[in-house]
Amino acid sequence: MNTRIEKTFFIFVVACIIQIIYMCIKNECEMSTLRKKTDVLSSYVIYSVEMIKDISMGSINSTVFPGKNILIYCFSEDMCDECIYQDLAELYKIQEDIRKDKILLLPVYRTTRTNQIILRNKFSNFRYMNVSTDSIKFPFHRENGTEQRFFAFIDEFGRLNSFFFPKKNMQDMTRIYLSGVKSKMEYFDKN
């Protein structure tokens, strides 16, 4: 009888040790994933802070921003088409929740007949206003020297804030930003 109790106790102890080892391994994997996500977020914060340093409010003509409590998306015809399409896909999804009149695309395309046709076809699902090339000076990326597209939120006082510089293939970050803007819009709409 003692041997049976000892065997049962031994099996119980072994099972507990295996469970503890499993939990430690699982916990380590979760911590590793969390560290990776934290690294991505902090690198994006550093990237955004660097971009904000380059943007000056004087370089953006505020008369091109009609309305309050709206999200604007500024980009030009010279920027990466795939990047713009990724951003537009995310905007399209959130547009259903916040209404079409709360989003304004501000493409900077040269005024040609071909571009007017492109604008009408490309952005038919959005409210947009083509602005002249001298209305917006885009910030430059410090590493590669290219102009950067950006989102900004116009608050209830008509001030530009909450700038966001999307990165190619980082739609998760764009979704987080858009979710935050959606919350701001809902708050301002209620008050």
Features:
single chain; 191 residues; alpha+beta; Glutaredoxin; 2 domains; four-stranded mixed beta sheet; 4 helices; 53% helix; elongated
Strand content of the residues, in percent?
5-15%
Low-confidence stretches: 53-59
Round the mean pLDDT to the nearest integer and report it.
Answer: 80
SSE arrangement, N to C: HEHEHEEH
Judged by helices, strands and strand pairing, the structural class is: alpha+beta
Question: What characteristic shape results from the CA principal axes?
Answer: elongated
Largest sheet: 4 strands, mixed
Whole-number count of domains? 2
Provide the gyration radius in Å. 25 Å
Count the helices. How many? 4
Distance between the termini: 75 Å
CATH architecture of the largest domain: 3-Layer(aba) Sandwich
The CATH topology annotation of the largest domain reads as Glutaredoxin
Q: Number of DSSP strands?
A: 4
- The CATH class of the largest domain is Alpha Beta
What spatial order of strands do you see in the largest sheet?
Answer: 2-1-3-4
Percentage of residues assigned to helices:
40-55%
Could you walk me through the main structural features you see in this protein, from its secondary elements to its overall organization?
This protein folds into 2 domains: 1-54; 58-190, 3-Layer(aba) Sandwich (Glutaredoxin). Helix 2 (81-98) packs parallel to helix 4. It is elongated and about 95 Å long. Helices cover 53% and strands 12% of the residues. Mean pLDDT is 80; it is low at 53-59. It has a 4-stranded mixed sheet with strand order 2-1-3-4, with helices on one face. With 191 residues, it is α+β, with helices and mostly antiparallel strands. It has 4 helices and 4 strands; from the N terminus they run αβαβαββα. It has helices at 2-54, 81-98, 113-122, 171-190, and strands spanning 70-76, 103-108, 150-154, 160-164. The N and C termini lie far apart (75 Å). This is Alkyl hydroperoxide reductase subunit C/ Thiol specific antioxidant domain-containing protein. Keywords: Membrane, Transmembrane, Transmembrane helix.
